[in-house]
From TrEMBL:
The keyword Lyase applies. One of its GO terms (molecular function) is 2-oxopent-4-enoate hydratase activity. Keywords: Lyase. The keyword Lyase applies. One of its GO terms (cellular component) is cytoplasm. It comes from Thalassospira xiamenensis. This is 2-keto-4-pentenoate hydratase. It comes from the Bacteria. Residues 87-251 form the Fumarylacetoacetase-like C-terminal domain. InterPro entries: Fumarylacetoacetase-like_C, Fumarylacetoacetase_C_sf, Hydratase-Decarb/MhpD_sf.
Length: 254
């Protein structure tokens, strides 16, 4: 049986001290996603960090099928780590900055646990281009179960330009590209490889309802990578959505 208390203490200490750790010991390693979620919640409580939203990963149907799951994996976004377009962080803030072009949503109100793609739209305040700067506390990359326990690799979120007229869905499935200092990190022009941001949001509402919680006004949700997540070191980072706009920030060498 997994020692959830031991696992969460190790991960919370790594988060608070901003240090890297080896894989969790065998007796503290989650064996399935349910256990990983238990560790994640216990870890978050021990960090004392304030949660201000949610992040979705493994957000495409193809990726979910590969793991045998029915929806995205869920983790927290944290207060002080949602930054404005053009902001700067340093290499002291992140260990392994993984750059992901994403669509983020800010909630206006609380959808119920039975929300559908159609009904969840009425609870949205705004939709934004975004860059998730995912990060991890492990020295070496881990599998999806261990990653989920580690706060689902939460790092920073660049909340980029607001998308006007988002209800017409014209922004969906445009070509997208990520760059670091003008070097192309990843490109995607395949609509089938995009996550469904509003389907993911409806899934999240139901996921949280089963766990006795809910989305609320002001929550920020980032809905999954629109191009392959790619590690970078430092420099100006961009997520360019063709014909829609660009989210950008800087990771400055510390």
């Amino acid at each position: 049986m997994t020692d959830i208390t031991k696992a969460s203490r190790i991960l919370a200490d790594a988060f608070k001290q901003n240090i890297l750790i080896d894989p969790l010991p065998a007796d503290a390693s989650p064996v399935d996603f349910d256990t990983a979620y238990e560790i994640q919640q216990a870890t978050l409580a021990l960090t004392g960090a304030k949660q201000t939203g949610w992040k979705l990963s493994v957000a495409t149907r193809a990726a979910q099928a590969g793991l045998g799951i029915e929806g995205p994996l869920v983790g927290p976004l944290l207060d002080g780590r949602i930054i404005e377009n053009g902001a700067t962080i340093t290499t002291n803030d992140v260990h392994f900055p993984n750059i992901e072009a994403e669509i983020a949503v800010v909630m206006a109100s609380t959808p119920d646990g039975n929300a559908t793609i159609d009904t969840v739209l009425d609870h949205i305040k705004s939709v934004h281009l975004a860059i998730e700067i995912a990060d991890r506390r492990y020295r070496e990359r881990q599998g999806p179960v261990a990653t989920l326990a580690d706060l689902n690799s939460t790092g920073y979120l660049v909340l980029g330009p607001e998308i006007t007229n988002w209800r017409d869905m014209a922004f969906l499935n445009v070509p997208v590209e990520t760059r670091s200092d003008d070097k192309i990190l990843a490109q995607n022009s395949d609509p089938a490889a995009w996550p469904d941001p509003f389907g993911g949001l409806a899934y999240l509402a139901g996921f949280l309802a089963k766990r006795g919680t809910h989305l609320k006004a002001g929550d920020v949700i980032t809905t999954g990578a629109c191009a392959v997540p790619t590690l970078t070191s430092h420099g100006r980072i961009e997520a360019i959505f063709d014909g829609i706009g660009t989210a950008h920030a800087t990771i400055k060498a510390g």
